[in-house]
Protein backbone atom coordinates (compact mmCIF):
# COMPACT_ATOMS: atom_id res chain seq x y z
CA UNK A 1 0.00 0.00 0.00
CA UNK A 2 1.31 3.39 -0.94
CA UNK A 3 1.47 6.10 1.66
CA UNK A 4 -1.63 8.26 1.47
CA UNK A 5 0.20 11.16 -0.03
CA UNK A 6 1.60 9.00 -2.88
CA UNK A 7 -1.80 7.34 -3.51
CA UNK A 8 -3.41 10.77 -3.67
CA UNK A 9 -0.71 11.89 -6.00
CA UNK A 10 -1.24 8.85 -8.32
CA UNK A 11 -5.01 9.27 -8.20
CA UNK A 12 -4.72 12.91 -8.95
CA UNK A 13 -2.29 12.16 -11.77
CA UNK A 14 -4.73 9.57 -13.19
CA UNK A 15 -7.63 11.97 -12.93
CA UNK A 16 -5.59 14.65 -14.59
CA UNK A 17 -4.25 12.35 -17.31
CA UNK A 18 -7.65 11.14 -18.51
CA UNK A 19 -8.97 14.47 -19.59
CA UNK A 20 -5.54 15.33 -21.00
CA UNK A 21 -5.62 12.17 -23.14
CA UNK A 22 -9.10 13.03 -24.34
CA UNK A 23 -7.93 16.56 -24.96
CA UNK A 24 -4.98 15.26 -27.00
CA UNK A 25 -7.28 12.93 -28.93
CA UNK A 26 -9.64 15.81 -29.61
CA UNK A 27 -6.73 17.88 -30.91
CA UNK A 28 -5.59 14.98 -33.15
CA UNK A 29 -9.14 14.46 -34.46
CA UNK A 30 -9.51 18.19 -35.10
CA UNK A 31 -6.18 18.23 -36.95
CA UNK A 32 -7.20 15.22 -39.03
CA UNK A 33 -10.54 16.82 -39.86
CA UNK A 34 -8.92 20.10 -40.89
CA UNK A 35 -6.33 18.19 -42.96
CA UNK A 36 -9.16 16.28 -44.67
CA UNK A 37 -11.03 19.51 -45.38
CA UNK A 38 -7.84 21.06 -46.86
CA UNK A 39 -7.35 17.99 -49.05
CA UNK A 40 -11.00 18.12 -50.13
CA UNK A 41 -10.73 21.83 -51.01
CA UNK A 42 -7.49 21.19 -52.91
CA UNK A 43 -9.08 18.31 -54.76
CA UNK A 44 -12.19 20.25 -55.71
CA UNK A 45 -10.09 23.28 -56.78
CA UNK A 46 -7.85 21.16 -58.98
CA UNK A 47 -10.95 19.42 -60.38
CA UNK A 48 -12.36 22.80 -61.45
CA UNK A 49 -9.16 23.81 -63.17
CA UNK A 50 -8.01 20.52 -64.64
CA UNK A 51 -11.40 20.22 -66.34
CA UNK A 52 -10.56 23.42 -68.25
CA UNK A 53 -8.33 21.32 -70.51
CA UNK A 54 -11.44 19.48 -71.65
CA UNK A 55 -13.37 22.57 -72.68
CA UNK A 56 -14.03 22.62 -76.39
CA UNK A 57 -15.78 25.48 -78.09
CA UNK A 58 -17.54 23.23 -80.61
CA UNK A 59 -19.20 21.46 -77.66
CA UNK A 60 -20.03 24.71 -75.86
CA UNK A 61 -21.73 26.60 -78.72
CA UNK A 62 -24.10 29.33 -77.48
CA UNK A 63 -23.06 28.77 -73.84
CA UNK A 64 -22.73 31.58 -71.34
CA UNK A 65 -20.10 31.02 -68.65
CA UNK A 66 -20.02 33.21 -65.56
CA UNK A 67 -16.59 33.97 -64.12
CA UNK A 68 -16.61 34.29 -60.38
CA UNK A 69 -13.69 35.39 -58.17
CA UNK A 70 -14.01 32.45 -55.79
CA UNK A 71 -15.37 29.57 -57.84
CA UNK A 72 -14.26 30.19 -61.42
CA UNK A 73 -11.78 33.06 -61.77
CA UNK A 74 -10.71 31.88 -65.23
CA UNK A 75 -10.92 29.18 -67.82
CA UNK A 76 -9.31 27.93 -70.98
CA UNK A 77 -10.64 26.16 -74.02
CA UNK A 78 -9.77 24.86 -77.45
CA UNK A 79 -11.69 25.18 -80.68
CA UNK A 80 -12.27 21.43 -80.96
CA UNK A 81 -11.35 18.02 -79.53
CA UNK A 82 -10.73 16.80 -83.09
CA UNK A 83 -7.41 17.16 -84.92
CA UNK A 84 -8.98 19.86 -87.12
CA UNK A 85 -12.05 22.06 -86.75
CA UNK A 86 -15.02 21.34 -88.97
CA UNK A 87 -16.06 23.37 -92.03
CA UNK A 88 -19.12 25.61 -91.77
CA UNK A 89 -18.82 26.25 -88.04
CA UNK A 90 -20.67 29.23 -86.64
CA UNK A 91 -20.32 29.20 -82.91
CA UNK A 92 -20.31 31.69 -80.03
CA UNK A 93 -19.11 31.31 -76.45
CA UNK A 94 -19.85 34.06 -73.96
CA UNK A 95 -18.04 34.88 -70.70
CA UNK A 96 -19.55 37.24 -68.14
CA UNK A 97 -18.17 38.49 -64.84
CA UNK A 98 -20.19 37.93 -61.67
CA UNK A 99 -19.55 41.55 -60.67
CA UNK A 100 -19.88 44.39 -63.14
CA UNK A 101 -16.67 46.11 -61.93
CA UNK A 102 -14.56 43.13 -63.02
CA UNK A 103 -12.98 42.87 -66.47
CA UNK A 104 -11.91 39.91 -68.61
CA UNK A 105 -8.44 39.21 -69.96
CA UNK A 106 -8.73 37.22 -73.18
CA UNK A 107 -5.65 35.48 -74.52
CA UNK A 108 -5.29 33.51 -77.72
CA UNK A 109 -2.53 31.15 -76.56
CA UNK A 110 -2.14 29.27 -79.84
CA UNK A 111 -3.75 29.80 -83.18
CA UNK A 112 -3.71 27.91 -86.44
CA UNK A 113 -6.66 29.03 -88.52
CA UNK A 114 -6.33 28.34 -92.20
CA UNK A 115 -7.83 30.11 -95.13
CA UNK A 116 -6.36 33.56 -94.68
CA UNK A 117 -5.34 35.73 -97.56
CA UNK A 118 -3.67 38.90 -96.36
CA UNK A 119 -6.22 41.00 -94.52
CA UNK A 120 -9.10 38.69 -95.43
CA UNK A 121 -9.88 35.74 -93.20
CA UNK A 122 -11.98 32.91 -94.61
CA UNK A 123 -12.15 31.31 -91.16
CA UNK A 124 -11.73 33.46 -88.05
CA UNK A 125 -12.04 33.95 -84.34
CA UNK A 126 -13.51 37.29 -83.36
CA UNK A 127 -13.80 38.48 -79.79
CA UNK A 128 -16.57 40.97 -79.11
CA UNK A 129 -16.61 43.30 -76.11
CA UNK A 130 -20.02 43.73 -74.45
CA UNK A 131 -22.23 41.74 -76.80
CA UNK A 132 -22.22 39.66 -79.97
CA UNK A 133 -21.51 41.92 -82.96
CA UNK A 134 -20.68 44.81 -80.59
CA UNK A 135 -17.20 46.41 -80.57
CA UNK A 136 -14.44 43.97 -81.57
CA UNK A 137 -11.78 43.38 -78.92
CA UNK A 138 -9.19 41.79 -81.22
CA UNK A 139 -9.44 44.57 -83.81
CA UNK A 140 -6.31 43.67 -85.74
CA UNK A 141 -7.48 41.37 -88.56
CA UNK A 142 -4.14 39.55 -88.49
CA UNK A 143 -5.02 38.34 -84.99
CA UNK A 144 -8.29 36.74 -86.05
CA UNK A 145 -6.85 34.12 -88.37
CA UNK A 146 -3.38 32.92 -89.31
CA UNK A 147 -0.99 32.21 -86.44
CA UNK A 148 -0.53 35.41 -84.36
CA UNK A 149 -1.29 35.08 -80.66
CA UNK A 150 -2.81 38.04 -78.85
CA UNK A 151 -4.16 39.24 -75.53
CA UNK A 152 -6.70 41.94 -74.69
CA UNK A 153 -8.51 43.25 -71.64
CA UNK A 154 -12.21 43.94 -72.06
CA UNK A 155 -13.74 47.35 -71.45
CA UNK A 156 -17.09 45.85 -70.45
CA UNK A 157 -17.75 42.81 -68.25
CA UNK A 158 -18.83 40.53 -71.12
CA UNK A 159 -16.82 38.99 -73.94
CA UNK A 160 -18.16 36.88 -76.79
CA UNK A 161 -15.89 34.57 -78.77
CA UNK A 162 -17.20 33.92 -82.26
CA UNK A 163 -15.63 31.17 -84.30
CA UNK A 164 -16.56 30.91 -87.94
CA UNK A 165 -15.28 28.55 -90.60
CA UNK A 166 -16.34 28.48 -94.22
CA UNK A 167 -16.62 25.42 -96.42
CA UNK A 168 -12.98 25.55 -97.59
CA UNK A 169 -9.67 24.73 -95.83
CA UNK A 170 -9.56 23.68 -92.19
CA UNK A 171 -6.70 23.66 -89.66
CA UNK A 172 -6.05 22.68 -86.05
CA UNK A 173 -7.78 25.78 -84.64
CA UNK A 174 -6.90 27.69 -81.49
CA UNK A 175 -6.44 27.58 -77.73
CA UNK A 176 -7.68 30.48 -75.66
CA UNK A 177 -7.82 31.45 -72.02
CA UNK A 178 -9.91 33.94 -70.10
CA UNK A 179 -9.30 35.36 -66.65
CA UNK A 180 -11.00 37.79 -64.36
CA UNK A 181 -9.08 41.05 -64.01
CA UNK A 182 -9.70 43.00 -60.81
CA UNK A 183 -8.95 46.63 -61.69
CA UNK A 184 -10.30 47.92 -58.37
CA UNK A 185 -8.04 45.80 -56.15
CA UNK A 186 -5.39 48.35 -55.14
CA UNK A 187 -1.80 47.14 -55.71
CA UNK A 188 -3.11 43.58 -56.24
CA UNK A 189 -1.59 42.08 -53.03
CA UNK A 190 -1.06 38.30 -52.85
CA UNK A 191 -2.55 38.09 -49.36
CA UNK A 192 -5.94 38.97 -50.88
CA UNK A 193 -5.68 35.89 -53.10
CA UNK A 194 -4.68 37.79 -56.23
CA UNK A 195 -1.55 37.91 -58.36
CA UNK A 196 -0.02 40.97 -60.02
CA UNK A 197 1.10 40.07 -63.54
CA UNK A 198 4.16 41.77 -65.03
CA UNK A 199 1.81 43.63 -67.41
CA UNK A 200 -0.09 44.90 -64.28
CA UNK A 201 -3.17 42.78 -64.87
CA UNK A 202 -4.50 41.51 -61.54
CA UNK A 203 -5.73 37.91 -61.65
CA UNK A 204 -6.70 35.26 -59.10
CA UNK A 205 -3.72 33.50 -57.48
CA UNK A 206 -5.49 30.22 -58.31
CA UNK A 207 -4.61 30.72 -61.98
CA UNK A 208 -0.88 30.82 -61.32
CA UNK A 209 1.20 27.89 -62.60
CA UNK A 210 -1.67 25.88 -64.08
CA UNK A 211 -0.19 25.69 -67.59
CA UNK A 212 -2.34 28.41 -69.16
CA UNK A 213 -1.41 31.98 -69.94
CA UNK A 214 -4.04 33.96 -68.03
CA UNK A 215 -2.06 37.19 -67.51
CA UNK A 216 -1.75 37.72 -71.27
CA UNK A 217 2.07 38.07 -70.99
CA UNK A 218 2.44 34.54 -69.53
CA UNK A 219 4.00 35.93 -66.32
CA UNK A 220 1.64 33.72 -64.23
CA UNK A 221 3.41 30.68 -65.72
CA UNK A 222 7.02 31.86 -65.56
CA UNK A 223 8.06 31.43 -61.93
CA UNK A 224 6.68 28.10 -60.82
CA UNK A 225 7.99 25.50 -58.36
CA UNK A 226 9.52 22.28 -59.65
CA UNK A 227 6.95 19.77 -60.77
CA UNK A 228 4.52 22.42 -61.95
CA UNK A 229 4.35 23.77 -65.44
CA1 LIG B 1 -2.32 30.44 -65.60
From TrEMBL:
<keyword id="KW-1133">Transmembrane helix</keyword>
<dbReference type="InterPro" id="IPR002172">
    <property type="entry name" value="LDrepeatLR_classA_rpt"/>
</dbReference>
<dbReference type="InterPro" id="IPR036055">
    <property type="entry name" value="LDL_receptor-like_sf"/>
</dbReference>
<dbReference type="InterPro" id="IPR035914">
    <property type="entry name" value="Sperma_CUB_dom_sf"/>
</dbReference>
<feature type="disulfide bond">
    <location>
        <begin position="197"/>
        <end position="215"/>
    </location>
</feature>
<keyword id="KW-0812">Transmembrane</keyword>
<feature type="transmembrane region" description="Helical">
    <location>
        <begin position="21"/>
        <end position="41"/>
    </location>
</feature>
<dbReference type="Pfam" id="PF00431">
    <property type="entry name" value="CUB"/>
</dbReference>
<dbReference type="InterPro" id="IPR042333">
    <property type="entry name" value="LRAD2/Mig-13-like"/>
</dbReference>
<dbReference type="Pfam" id="PF00057">
    <property type="entry name" value="Ldl_recept_a"/>
</dbReference>
<protein>
    <recommendedName>
        <fullName>CUB domain-containing protein</fullName>
    </recommendedName>
</protein>
<keyword id="KW-0472">Membrane</keyword>
<keyword id="KW-1015">Disulfide bond</keyword>
<dbReference type="InterPro" id="IPR000859">
    <property type="entry name" value="CUB_dom"/>
</dbReference>
<feature type="disulfide bond">
    <location>
        <begin position="209"/>
        <end position="224"/>
    </location>
</feature>
<feature type="domain" description="CUB">
    <location>
        <begin position="61"/>
        <end position="181"/>
    </location>
</feature>
<dbReference type="InterPro" id="IPR023415">
    <property type="entry name" value="LDLR_class-A_CS"/>
</dbReference>
